[in-house]
Amino acid sequence: MSQTENMGSLISSEAYEKIDKWIARYPADKRQSALIPALSIVQEMCGNGSLSTELMDEMAAYIGIPEIAVYEVASFYSMYELEPVGRNMVAVCTNISCMLCGGEEIVQHIEDKYGVKIGGTTADGKFTLKQEEECLAACAGAPMMTVNGHYHEKLTLEKVDSIIEGLK
């Protein structure tokens, strides 16, 4: 019987297969090195866009590390969500280059037009406006934002509206 058959039912066998491919890249005593990609897989495939305590506990047991080690990683990196989020994740860069080119105005426009505050989700669940991002590493394309990890650069308010209205 494979290791995935012994685990709880919160994480799908398909997700475990992907996680196993990452674990196989490391020596047996370094399984914890696969934690970051494993959490990404679980969040995407099993967590409805977020990581519950139960999902993190199951991942800790599977990898064989203390639960606190998983919590530390999941709470440190901004790519992980610990609370439920909307179907789409919008993150506007507000670091210096984007700020100087209108990033803060874009955040204000989204908040005003779509009735959502930073860290909140629209009433229809269409998107979550992620906490302010300090840098998304696209300064030459400022102002910019990501939507579900895809970069959108040289934004105007009209471009922002077009992108957000196109979310399904």
Notes on the structure:
This protein is α+β, with helices and mostly antiparallel strands and 168 residues long. It folds into two domains: 3-76, Orthogonal Bundle (Arc Repressor Mutant, subunit A); 88-165, Glutaredoxin (3-Layer(aba) Sandwich). 41% of the residues lie in helices and 8% in strands. It has seven helices and four strands; from the N terminus they run ααααβααβββα. The longest helix has 12 residues, at 103-114. It starts with 12 loop residues before the first helix and ends with a helix. The mean pLDDT is 90.
List the helices and strands and how they pair.
Elements: H1 13-23, H2 35-45, H3 53-63, H4 67-76, E1 88-92, H5 96-100, H6 103-114, E2 127-129, E3 145-147, E4 150-152, H7 157-165
Parallel strand pairs: 1-2
Antiparallel strand pairs: 1-3, 3-4
Helix pairs in contact: 1-2, 2-3, 3-4
Percent helix: 40-55%
Alpha-carbon distance between the termini?
A: 40 Å
Q: Are there runs of 5+ residues with pLDDT below 50, and where?
A: none
Number of H- or I-type helical stretches:
7
Short summary of the structure?
With 168 residues, this protein is α+β, with helices and mostly antiparallel strands. The protein has seven helices and four strands, in the order ααααβααβββα.
